[in-house]
Amino acid sequence: MYSLIFLVFLLVQTKAELFTSSAHLQTALYAERDIADLLKSYIQREEDRLSRIKQLAEDYEEHSKLALQNLDKYLGNPINAFLLIKRFTLDWDRDVIPVLVNNSWDSMYKEIEQVRSDLPSHEDLKGAASALMRLQDTYQLDTSKVAQGDLRGIVSPVLSAEECFELGRLSYNQGDYYHTMLWMEQAWDKQEKAGGEGSKDFLEDLEDAKVEILDYLAFSYYKLGDVAQALELTKELLTLDPNHERALNNKKYFEAMLRDEPRKTRSAEEKPGYQLNRDEYRNSEEFLTYEALCRGETTMPLKNAHLLTCRYVTNNHPLLLIQPIKEETVHLDPWIVVYYNVMSDEEISTIKHLATPRLNRATVQNSKTGALETANYRISKSAWLRGEEHPVVERLNQRMEAITGLDLNTAEELQIANYGLGGHYEPHFDYARKEEKDAFKSLGTGNRIATFLNYMSDVEAGGATVFPYLGLKLFPRKGNAAFWYNLYKSGEGIFNTRHAACPVLVGSKWVANKWIHERGQEFRRPCSLSEYE
């Protein structure tokens, strides 16, 4: 079985960012199926052609064998002479050349090229590798377990020595020497255990494999600050390839560094701890708390947990009187609730069907310019649906209005988001802060007063919605929804609603967001003069 990342290694050249959406990545599998059918058809045609060539060869062999038994007698017959000449003129042009001169591959290649528009690109490959590293860091995945097909207890494809090597090389090319070290060491271990018998096209010679892996490892250790280990690996490389020019130069450089800076020399008893090279924010308490919550850890006790309740809600609204909605309060201040069975499977299926063709890379609003742009801290694809486009969308809008008691006429369109490989959205606010004056200016409906987040899929692992400053984590459950106010009644932003979408470890995450704005809520949620009410 091939791993997902290995499939991405093999398929290239399209402009679409398939890795950001599991829905769009599915198209690669359909394309793979179509290519398999095309190749099987080509193979059948080639087998038929080769069978014809075999028949020709046997015919020529039998004919020449018979004629050569008595050349003079055979060629002395004018009919035989005529037929021999005809055999390599008319017959050759009509029967042999079409079989030998085969252009079927050209047409086949054109057909495959048409299908390839749905296949991943090299940009997808880089994105997929980065996503795997993000998952590895967020969920503290042991590299050897991942390589052996264990994703926190979930069975996944086992990675070969080649696939580990490629993950290491992709990390290296992006300047990520920490993950280069981890994956090159896995490639080394697997290549050793296989006795040099890696996959068909990967460094089949054991010594060549060791040289290449050691080359990457030595430089990575050097970039991580362990010059002593870099030197040891370089020396090991030179025992395998004494004429390796780069290793010879590096050896001199590392030795000079250790002479000039003895503190970089490590004693045999020392056990170095290599740190992931992160920026200041990703080493912050907020980000570390976010990652801990994603792993399901408890970062702080929930305040007033004993006062949390569950109840049925009607709001005296006609849509809810016959079938009240189930409401669970999961946090009191700020008030955050989960509603159960908001959407049916049929409604979810319809909305996915409507949104999938429109999915584009999700954007964020530039705090200075107000422009929408893609960002590495938000990896997903999204589409927008209007109520008038389909009765199901309008029905969902009406239901959300009945549940919240808010006016949705000034709300944003329903945003459908699909999170692909490692899809996530790092800690953020849904509302515009005071310095973001132009954030929703074009809408003319004020700030985002509330968020209604519908979960349209179960997620096998990961993908939680977490609130780092509350210690709250909400795991997706198909059909359920989360709701919270982003603003106090005074219009001030509620800081503790800062939240994040954790990376999807295994599975596909679909959500439908409804951002409700201030305009139209004047009588439904009256303003208050108290700043934090």
Automatic annotation (TrEMBL):
It is found in: Endoplasmic reticulum lumen. Residues 410-518 form the Fe2OG dioxygenase domain. It is an enzyme of class 1 (oxidoreductase). InterPro entries: Oxoglu/Fe-dep_dioxygenase_dom (IPR005123), P4H_N (IPR013547), P4HA-like (IPR045054), Pro_4_hyd_alph (IPR006620), Pro_4_hyd_alph_FE2OG_OXY (IPR044862), TPR-like_helical_dom_sf (IPR011990), TPR_P4H (IPR059068), TPR_rpt (IPR019734). Its cofactor is L-ascorbate. Keywords: Dioxygenase, Endoplasmic reticulum, Glycoprotein, Iron, Metal-binding, Oxidoreductase, Signal, TPR repeat, Vitamin C. Residues 1-16 form the signal peptide. SMART domains: P4Hc (SM00702). Catalyzes the post-translational formation of 4-hydroxyproline in -Xaa-Pro-Gly- sequences in collagens and other proteins. Belongs to the P4HA family. This is procollagen-proline 4-dioxygenase. It comes from Biomphalaria glabrata.
